[in-house]
Amino acid sequence: MQNIIHPNLEKSINNWFETQFNSLTLPFYNSIDLRNSGYKIAPIDANLFPAGFNNLSEMSKATTAELMRSYFEGKQHKRVLIIPENYTRNKMYIENVFAIEVILQQAGFETRIGLFHNEAYNLIEPYETIVKENSLLKTTSGFMPDVIILNRDMTSHIPDMLENVKQEIIPSPLYGWHSRQKFKYFKIYKKLVSEFCSEFKIDPWLISAFTEGCDEVDFNDDSPLETVATKVDQVLSLVQKKYEEYGIKTQPYVFIKASNGTYGMGIITATSGEEILTLNKKKRHKMKKIKEGIEVNSVIIQEGVPTIDIFECSPAEPLIYYIGNTPTCYLYRCNSRKDIYSSLNSTNCKFYDVSQVVENKTLSLWGTVSKLAVLALAVEMRSFHI
Questions:
Q1: ∠ at Cα 48 (142, 38), nearest 5°?
Q2: Dihedral of the alpha carbons of 88, 92, 95, 96, in degrees to the nearest 10
Q3: Which is the most buried residue in 49, 106, 203, 351, by most CB within 10 A?
Q4: In angstroms, rounded to a whole number, what is the distance separating the alpha carbons of residues 129 and 122?
Q5: 25 and 382 in contact (C-beta within 8 Å)?
Q6: Which residues fall within 8 angstroms of residue 91, CB to CB, at 6 or more apart?
Q7: What burial class does residue 384 get, using C-beta atoms within 10 Å of its C-beta: 0-12 exposed, 13-18 middle, 19+ buried?
Q8: What is the pLDDT of residues 353-375, one digit of tens each?
Q9: pTM for this entry
Q10: Is 75 helix (H, G, I), strand (E, B) or coil?
């Protein structure tokens, strides 16, 4: 697998990345989901508001703190307000929020966590209530932040309280899933991979997954899904040709995902277009709505990449965390209740920090492919300001 990108290219690849990132604003933090089949490795999701910082080892948290300090270097920020998701009391998510607070404190920032006054019903110790005065956000305890860090992906909309705020807000509320579309992101990634692979003489398929978009979708029980079915067959045909080229003997399949989906919601698999035309009520119901009750009307059809990775006797997939364009942690997401073909992102998954466990040449491969995915995020971010 490591032969996809030869180690001798490392210096040239680093120079290529440096040139590409030179004119772009780097995302504050992000995480990239990869799938490694042994014959290829590809990003399958990219998150601008990552959770899961509670899964980082103490060493990785220290690295993250150092990188966060560097990210804000020269900005004179001393006080930070974290605004998390308000919809959940999920224990693991809340531990993630507290972990971000601790990491920022280790980085030298005075840090608070807050929810808006109209969300006060969902306050959790030690969350504070946020109010807005003269276009400035502060907490009712009097804490006035220099910078606001969002850890909520705003699936439905930008909260009114975040409009016309004088303090710096990162990531920008513009990047929430209310406006992001997975297909747009993977279209950007495809273009960058084409340029990268042309430069370094690599087959782009080896580090990407075929992805098509489909708008105006309706998963109501009596609604036809011919367009989705047609695109499923188109992607499967492309994958089959590559399987024949490389002598791969497994059956092609695809994931159908909500184009603005998150938290592993709104995902099903298929091995033919016919399966989409005959979806049962359970699968249709699964695809009708995602987080915050948002109806699914746009999907991507993405080549399924079976995972070859096994950790703790469970199917696993790499998850790489970044601050800016520097990897800060390498995790495995594992799920003992899923097989190697399934999405592992469900309530039964577990996470392990393997930054000090996986061999360096594997981490190097993960790093190169995931950095391409981060570059695509930076290009996508720029598009919201043009």
A1: 145
A2: -90
A3: 49
A4: 10
A5: yes
A6: none
A7: exposed
A8: 999 999 999 999 999 999 999 99
A9: 0.96
A10: coil
